[in-house]
Specification:
Immunoglobulin-like; 6-stranded mixed β-sheet; 5-stranded mixed β-sheet; globular; binds zinc ion
């Protein structure tokens, strides 16, 4: 018989310690669970309204929020702007709210939206140099009121403040949502589709508040589906959500995916409401015409629109192989542009002059054939009706898919084992 008296012997002190530890561990788990639970179900903070108030030369940009937020504001030059960074805020405002600034002498326009996951931003374009004299958060019934107070200043003081602020807290580039998906082990050529703009950078706006970033994203999604459905190619988007992506990052994602073709999708707006139709742009050092130069300048300002410093620059390498690759890539880009225009005709809305070129930063990958497709003009009622119609989107995406198929049939060496692969070998890195 076993003597189990030892297992029955009780050490009260040890038992109390063990109980206490168990209670502590359970408590910690409960706290952790509650934190995870509250995080998962936390109500996002929302901005529901905005306005500008002027008094004695000072102006207040006011946002009505559902709760308190942490914010920081700083000046930025070239052009003069105020950047307001906010932890995480959803803007349920009329997207054109920031253009109704007729009663302001200091504010030309303001933009708002997601800058990076968990980081929102308000960008105030200044009509004249102005200093942030105060940022206040006032509790009100049903939430908080965010007030950004501005006062006129002189250009020298504004620049000095911007330099001091940059030295104190250098701007951080956005943390990117999802890393570029690595090239898949597949024989299929990769087509990278780049829906322009996103997040805080809305792009062009239509009369009724339609946003370029949303229209081109919808189109890009449908195009991706059509390309994948055809089974010949693999289609990758540069952005999978409504988020800001710097121009250089878009180019990088095309190269990372060893893209056989890069399609940047945009839509424009003009003062002339009767100008309509799609235009296909390729890269050139000198713009083909004044309109192409205007569009390229506008699209190249996308990083600035989101409050990044400096201008997006393309890679410049003085290397003979690099130059050869670049020339060959340009030839492919121009050929694809021709194929696309011939097919797109059937989608029914080509611009009078559908083939143009200019210095688009986003088209500057030297080894990836790239085009920028302006789907149409949000300022044209006809284009707007097409661009927001699911039927048109389907039909146009099918035409574009057909153009891709025909292009690679007639240019077999331009697929991933051709242009992309060949270019990779020659890439001076
Ligand atoms: Zn655009």
């Amino acid at each position: 018989m076993t003597d189990d008296s030892s297992s029955l012997s009780v050490n009260p002190a040890r038992q109390i310690r063990r109980c206490a530890l168990l209670v502590l561990a359970a408590g910690a788990l409960l706290v952790l669970d509650l934190q995870l639970f509250s995080r998962a179900f936390a109500q996002p903070l929302i901005a529901l309204g905005s306005r500008i108030e002027a008094e004695n030369g000072r102006e207040r940009l006011i946002f009505d929020l559902t709760g308190p937020v942490k914010i920081s504001a700083r000046p930025l030059t070239d052009p003069d702007r105020i950047i307001v960074d906010i932890a995480d805020l959803e803007f349920r405002l009329d997207p054109s709210a920031g253009r109704n600034t007729a009663n302001s002498k200091l504010i030309k326009a303001f933009r708002f939206g997601l800058f990076a996951p968990g980081r929102s931003r308000i960008i105030v374009d200044l009509a004249q140099p102005a200093a942030v004299t105060a940022t206040r958060l006032i509790p009100v019934k049903d939430g908080s009121r965010l007030i950004i107070e501005l006062a006129p200043t002189d250009a020298a003081s504004f620049t000095a403040a911007a330099i001091a602020e940059a030295a104190r807290a250098p701007d951080t580039r956005p943390t990117l949502s999802s890393p570029p998906s690595p090239p898949r082990p597949s024989d299929k050529a990769v087509i990278v589709i780049d829906p322009g703009h996103g997040g805080v950078d809305t792009g062009a706006l239509g009369k009724h508040g339609e946003q370029e970033k949303a229209i081109v994203f919808e189109f890009a999604r449908v195009l991706q589906e059509k390309i994948e459905a055809e089974g010949l190619f693999h289609a990758v988007l540069t952005r999978e959500e409504d988020i800001f992506l710097p121009l250089a990052e878009r180019v990088r994602r095309a190269r990372e995916n060893n893209a056989a073709l890069f399609l940047s999708i945009h839509a424009d707006t003009l003062a002339a409401p009767n100008v309509e139709g799609a235009t296909v742009y390729t890269l050139s050092a000198r713009a083909s015409d004044a309109e192409a130069a205007r569009i390229a300048e506008k699209e190249n300002l996308a990083d600035q629109a989101a409050g990044l410093e400096g201008k997006a620059e393309a890679e410049e390498v003085d290397d003979i192989l690099f130059e050869l690759t670049r020339r060959e890539t340009h030839a492919y880009s121009r050929d694809f542009s021709k194929t696309l225009i011939s097919k797109w005709k059937d989608a029914g809305n080509l611009n009078k002059n559908p083939s143009r070129s200019a210095g688009f930063v986003v088209l500057k990958a030297h080894d990836v054939p790239s085009i920028l497709l302006e789907l149409g003009y949000l300022s044209s009622e006809k284009d707007l009706t097409r661009l927001t119609s699911p039927q048109w989107r389907e039909q146009a995406a099918l035409k574009l898919t057909e153009a891709i198929r025909v292009f690679f049939q007639t240019h077999p060496s331009a697929n991933s084992s051709g242009a992309g692969g060949r270019a990779k070998e020659q890439r001076p890195e």
